[in-house]
Write a structure and sequence with these properties.
By secondary structure, the protein is an all-alpha fold. The protein has 2 domains: 1-94, no CATH class; 96-145. It has helices at residues 3-29, 31-40, 45-76, 108-144. Helix 1 packs antiparallel against helix 2 and helix 1 packs across helix 3. It is elongated, with a radius of gyration of 23 Å.
C-alpha cells in the first residue's frame, strides 16, 4: 500500500470521525437533527462517509477559527479579532528571554528574579496539571452515571 494512500485514508478517517461526533452531538441536542440523521442511515456507506467527512472538514475549520480568535484575544488583550478573508486569523507572537546565560552583566538579583519566575511558572504548571487531572476524573464520573 502506498504511503500517500495510507495518509489519505487516515485523513479521511479523521474527518469522518469529526463529522460523526458532530452529528452525534446534534442528535443529542436537537430532535429535528435526529430525524435528519436517521434518514442518512438509508443511504450507502460511501455517501454517508462522504457527508460525514465534509462535515468534519467544516467542523475542523470552525474549531480552528475559534481557537485562533481566542488566542488572538489573549495575545492582544482585546475582545475583537479581525479574521482574514478565509475566516482564519493569523496570530503573531514575540518571545522574550527571561534569563540569558551568555550575558556578562547578569547580576545576582537578576538570577534570583529569574529563578523566582521559573519557580512560580513551575508551581503554576503543577497546579494546572492537578486541575486537569481532577477535571478528567470528574468527566469520567459523569460518563459512568
Amino acid at each position: 500500500m502506498d504511503t500517500l494512500d495510507l495518509e489519505k485514508l487516515f485523513q479521511r478517517s479523521y474527518y469522518v470521525t469529526l463529522g460523526a461526533t458532530s452529528s452525534l452531538l446534534e442528535v443529542i441536542q436537537d430532535p429535528a437533527k435526529r430525524q435528519e440523521n436517521l434518514r442518512m442511515l438509508g443511504r450507502t456507506f460511501e455517501e454517508v462517509t462522504q457527508d460525514l467527512a465534509e462535515k468534519g472538514v467544516s467542523v475542523e475549520a470552525e474549531a480552528r477559527s475559534y481557537v485562533d480568535s481566542f488566542i488572538a484575544q489573549q495575545v492582544n488583550g482585546s475582545a475583537e479579532s479581525q479574521p482574514s478573508e478565509n475566516g482564519l486569523t493569523t496570530v503573531t507572537t514575540t518571545a522574550k528571554t527571561i534569563y540569558d546565560n551568555s550575558s556578562d552583566t547578569t547580576t545576582k538579583e537578576d538570577i534570583k528574579s529569574a529563578n523566582k519566575i521559573k519557580s512560580s511558572m513551575r508551581d503554576e504548571i503543577q497546579e494546572l496539571t492537578q486541575q486537569l487531572a481532577s477535571l478528567r476524573s470528574e468527566m469520567e464520573q459523569l460518563r459512568s452515571k
